[in-house]
Amino acid sequence: MKQNQNTLYLMTITLVATLGGLLFGYDTAVISGAEKSLEKYFIDGLNLSSLVHGATTSSALIGCIIGGIISGIFASRFGRKKSLIFAATLFFLSALGSAYPEVLFFTKGEPTIALLLTFNLYRIIGGIGVGLASAITPMYISEVAPAAIRGRLVSLNQFAIILGMLVVYFVNWSITSGQTVAWIDDIGWRYMFASEAIPALLFGSLLLIVPETPRYLALQGEEEKALHILSRINGKERAEAIMQDIKSSVSHSSAKLFTYGKLVITIGILLSVFQQFVGINVALYYAPRIFESMGAAKDASMMQTVVMGLVNVVFTIVAILFVDKVGRKPLLIIGSVGMAIGMFGVASMAYTNAIGIGTLIFIIIYTASFMMSWGPICWVLISEIFPNKIRGQAVAIAVAAQWTANYFISSTYPMMMEFSGTMTYGFYGVMSVLSALFVWKLVPETKGKTLEEMETLWSRKQAVSKDASAS
Predict the structure, then answer these.
(1) Is 279 left (phi over 0), alpha (psi -120 to 50) or beta?
(2) How far apart are CA 107 and CA 112, in angstroms?
(3) 200 in the Ramachandran plot: left (φ > 0), alpha (ψ -120 to 50) or beta?
(4) pLDDT score of 111 more than 70
């Protein structure tokens, strides 16, 4: 009975934390249903360029970069729990502000440059919340989870991200279902953004009842509180031993970023960059537009987007089930090959102007391949590939690189599509091929290795590099 209580307590606080991942997915994908209406309201209304449209659609990513950069400072200074509460507050404010940016200073239905900037500001505020959640939610889960099941529990966060995307696809579809295009362009897109306020409020409220992590409490010298939480999760017998492990990990002093050489930092950055340069967020943000451009009506394009969301969930589960059995590298390479097939297929459809079920099939192949590989496994590798002494600095750099690459790819998509759809999707296909070569040549397999073994690996590589330079 006691073990069941421990499990229930652990799962409760883990599931509360994963709401941060759900909001991460919700906020980044909500734009997919609203971007065409935003184009009519702001871009067409003000006679602005497609580049401005791309920047507006992707403006939240500026906040994501900021949130990723400051996440380490917030987590260390204010704690994991308070930082997540702050992120929830930002989600809530962004949802309401993005839905009705005219409040206080502007007139509804009269777009201006100042109103466009205000809308982007609200989206950036939400993006800061996403950036904080993307770094701190996995950190929170890993610091409360027992070592034996830490991987599975942290992986739930990636599942929550995809679930958040799926939920917002259904929400957007339900809002637009049976409505006229005029209503959607006037009111519907506002409901899409406002809907995020509900999970944001739930997330912030539930965080009030979960504890701070034992690791952070230990860092603050509150060992009695840390022991109490550890005892509730692991039982009194193991709590003392785990506290000793926490003290040991806390005792790792920070080191200079390149203590273990430049290669490990480069690999971390390239993992993040390739995850975005293969074009996944184009499929997420612009999914309805892609399907409409291929000949689907608005209702059909929204439904096909929901189908994509279901595929995302199913194949994320595949990754969770096999990442510790097959290994990181094989899944990444298989995923890269699948993504290349999918994107080259879409490119060929665009070249021949062929419209039909084939395009949907290629996009599903692409997204399924990503979700079983680069989607969750990139985050797994970033969390475990860096040595303990530089992990905080290195993860911050990798996360910032990921959001920066995300912003670049998403904001340039409309402009690239104006030039050539074939070239655009072909580019993402080429990036998929390069990502496979990168993993094959440079990324070490981390399956079954402890974090200390990774530190030994990079220390050895750095020593070999120094010997080679000396000779």
Answers:
(1) left
(2) 10
(3) alpha
(4) yes
Backbone angles phi, psi at 201, to 5 degrees: -65, -40
Per residue in 286-325, pLDDT (tens digit) is 666 666 665 555 555 556 666 777 787 888 888 888 877 7
User: What is the tens place of the pLDDT at every residue in 441-455?
Assistant: 999 887 776 555 677
Q: What token pair was written down for 391? A: 């992990």
Q: Does residue 392 have a pLDDT over 80?
A: no
Backbone angles phi, psi at 49, to 5 degrees: -85, 170
Max avg pLDDT among 6-15, 89-98, 225-234:
89-98
Query: Which of these, 216, 248, 243, lies nearest to 230 by C-alpha position?
Result: 243
Burial letters for 131-167: b for 16+ Cβ neighbours within 10 Å, e otherwise? Answer: bbbbbbbbbbbbbbbeeeeebebbbbbbbbbbbbbbb
Measuring CA to CA, which residue among 12, 32, 21, 11 is closest to residue 413? 32
Reported pTM? 0.77
Contact 429, 344 (CB under 8 A): yes
